[in-house]
């Protein structure tokens, strides 16, 4: 701890901080632009000028930038001194010289850090009387809008984009008061994290283009704390709506998970919730067409079908909440519930959960992953399967070289100085994947091979770390030497991190990764092991599932079912046409609870409109076993509701029971699944109040409430109640610091922008006042004697006539629902089949772009050829989950022809 | 009078070849230096009272002493000669580099040896084409003669040296921005600490010295500290200094004179006084980013102690003379326009304050000034004070303006009252 003095008052502050961090953490309102809690200090904007005094006798002091001033023992500053005050106001005046006075038409207006800082600084009258400098703007793709005239040159954008996220196509050009932040020419910003510029930019240069399509001021939005459903990481988001449509997604700060950032899939992939294809009414098929079930009890007929003695089965969903999956399971009975994924996938996830629970290695959170100093990725293209993990790993790669800077006492916050020492160097970072992945650009060694060969490399590394393990037979010299250098680097590290996942559908890969981690643990290393899984609630659903879809198929093939209930699951997309038809045909009646029309809902007898994350409340469990609550943003004025609500109504009908509130269902679920106990702690129960107040979803400045539906009825309706959470759907409620899982927006007096988050944290960049939301359901016992996996696969040998087809992943396209959002759709690649050049030539195929035919499940598929020379011989890659490739189960073997 | 740095530079402008340089004792200082330890060289330079000639006047030996030395230090270490002479009115390094490049190279080799640097760069202003050719040639000669490369003169000491020609931005002359430029990055300055001695070029220990500073080194080594101290007029020693004069003097030029020579002697004796029909009105003593001195200050000794007492800085020691027919407002405008254009755009006060200042001065010159502009210009000189900005560019740019506002205020007021430039 260090003792510092701010305006003559003494404070004890943690070591190693700068004075700006210290002031903000202590709650002072000190203006700043270029500093960012995740990007640290560079001293460019000069906005945090304070007076720094040498000692208590120094009465004059000198203006110093708080962000560049170490908070060491005896540091003495004044924020309030007139000279400091005048300097900051004058600095804002300078920043505003060329800034357009377009706040009323600027998307950032009302949540603009520049507006906040301008007011805070006290600057008001404009003295500058000359012409403003203007710039032309660029087309940056479907996600971001560019308005360079608003730029105040804080350099945050390039520092985030290039230095933090590894982007290559955004830079600063020209000089003096003409500097320009943009691309070298118009074009799509390529980096997967570009959307963070919306929040990183302190003003309206980079704004959300999807929000612009249906623009609403921040104060008019009704928001809910939610969890991204775009992949398995469970990044925290704030989802906002007005007039019943979701307008945008912002980062919800969670110091344990995503911190300040989101990936572009998560940020811009929400628009499917507003799709015209949404199912908004309970539907029934009558002679081939769907008709709304009018009035009365919507389940009247379904109830009759499900009566006593009927064979009812249910298929759950990894994109539906625990509560929905649980209620379906309750409704159909344990033995009739099937997890909504293939058996292959289900078994892989079971294996991952098994390792999480019974292994002996810690699974770090997304935030903790940033703290490791050596990385070995075993078979996962994280940039495309779990994008934010790639962002964390990019930070981890800096840790080892950063030590050199720390050695000469450069503090972490002195960002430019650290970068100077580190240059382009990265720490030990090894990747074994099927083909070239984006993180290769920071890797110290990359290996491309068949999943079995990846697993073999993993086993070889484990064996080099622990000589007692069986050696890998028939290892070629290259892999042997690579495995030695990987083992050496991991052993030399303080905190090695092993990353793997289910994306290659290979149990061998998962087991090999665990072996490496176990071996390191036994060597006393503080090792971490992260697995990614396919979907938002893959882990949660699998915890509730004993059987999966292939079991269901086998079951109905043996014995027809009377009713099949499908929960938020497009079977066609997931298991393909052949298997889908096989199961649907063997069920007399099919009832689906679904968000959007799809091939499955087109083949059902009844379809009920299920809420997406926007209209549902629930709990999902991420890849590390962290249960997190998401809340519905609004109650739509149609029949859409949480699937569990539909299921609860159906259950009431069947059992003539009472409607149950969310908390009751959670209790019931915990009672039957004690390992889910901790989900009770993920958020307060619905009866929680602060004093007598609920927690508002809208800010107190929310406008238009009385007139929003005045064209229909001039009397204002009673605001809807939320029986499932302690939150109100209006601005009424407690406006102080709310429980962290229930914070719907960030606002604090004088802080209207996203940077109001400073006020919700114990110290800036640290945990939230109420603790970071989410609870981990299981922790491994690190002292346990975990058993190594002994199945070392044999090396893959390409066959002469057949190719093995493996999935390749795309951040835009490989996830089912986000791919339906218009902005994301623009970024989805053309479907292809990828081969290396030799393989293509051997198969007599034309050059890139030529048509290639292959067979899958007896159906002919035609795609264009993409040459990817990093792919090993004998292996073809298909983009997972695109329209053209949906329903394919991997891996499979096929012959291909031109 | 001793003129160690310029004595061998030929009047006809041709370059001193290696052979000619060796004939007048060139590289003998290096031979001597290689027989001493690096610490001994550093000690000599520390004791010599040599101060940096780039403008800031930091003691050279002390600067060197912050470089980590001995075993187990970070390598490679670098030495960079700052020859990015972009300061308006300054052309002293050009004379040294064009006239006697080997003197610079020898100085660099000895300095590199003292800090145990193994790589050296000559960072040269883009426009110095002749100098670039001559340095390139001299480097080849030095390599061929065994003064550079592996095992220099059998001493076991290795040094590689390269020429880098700059892109032509004033900013590149700032020590840390120069390092960024040399790395191929934007020429933005860096925060200190860490200082370049610890984290400089490519994050390695680096010394950046001005060309003139480095040219002093061989003579200090060859002739000793006592000799070096006594060739100066200043009580604290400090050798000779290249002084220059430009503006409407009879014979503008560069002269090597004892440090501490008076401004009057430089202007009246060496520059031949004012041209006929012009009167002396004031001068920037050390390049464009120093405060004006007036007639009252003509007897100031041009050294690091005395010029500040008169309210300015020695800077580069190259005097820009303003005569009575030159408009001080116009002169400030020309300077501030230059500085505004040369701002790298990194920090707010410099990026925004300089163009605003220049625009106000232009308004004054065009007869569109307002009385409150004078207060505003004064405000800008405070706003861009040292410490408020990221580097010294803007504070330097404010020096001529703040002193012009002090000494020539009536000219500013006249421009505003008469709505015109009163010199046209």
Average pLDDT of chain B, rounded to a whole number, is 97
Number of domains of chain A: 4
Q: Order of strands in the sheet with the most strands of chain A?
A: 14-13-25-24-23-15-16-22
- In DSSP terms (H or I, runs of 4 or more residues), the helix count of chain B works out at 17
Count of helix runs of chain A: 23
Strand order of the largest sheet of chain B: 3-2-1-4
Task: Assign the structural class of chain A, choosing from mainly alpha, mainly beta, alpha/beta, alpha+beta, or little secondary structure.
Answer: alpha/beta
Largest sheet of chain A: 8 strands, mixed
Keywords:
heterodimer, A: 898 residues, alpha/beta, Ubiquitin-like (UB roll), Rossmann fold, Dimethylsulfoxide Reductase, domain 2, eight-stranded mixed beta sheet, 23 helices, 26% helix, 18% strand, B: 424 residues, de novo design (two linked rop proteins), 3 domains, four-stranded mixed beta sheet, 42% helix
Explained architecture:
The complex is a heterodimer of chains A (about 900) and B (about 425). By secondary structure, chain A is α/β, with parallel strands linked by helices. Chain A folds into four domains: about 1-95, Ubiquitin-like (UB roll) (Roll); about 285-295 and about 310-340 and about 540-725 and about 730-775, Rossmann fold (3-Layer(aba) Sandwich); about 345-535, Dimethylsulfoxide Reductase, domain 2 (3-Layer(aba) Sandwich); about 805-895, Barwin-like endoglucanases, CATH 2.40.40. Chain A is built from 23 helices and 37 strands. Chain A has an eight-stranded mixed beta sheet, sandwiched between helices. Chain A has a five-stranded mixed beta sheet with strand order 2-1-5-3-4, sandwiched between helices. A five-stranded parallel beta sheet of chain A has the order 19-18-17-20-21, sandwiched between helices. Chain A is globular. By secondary structure, chain B is α/β, with parallel strands linked by helices. In chain B, the strands form two sheets. A four-stranded parallel beta sheet of chain B has the order 3-2-1-4, sandwiched between helices. Chain B has a four-stranded mixed beta sheet with strand order 6-5-8-7, covered by helices on one side. The model of chain B has no long low-confidence stretch (mean pLDDT about 95).
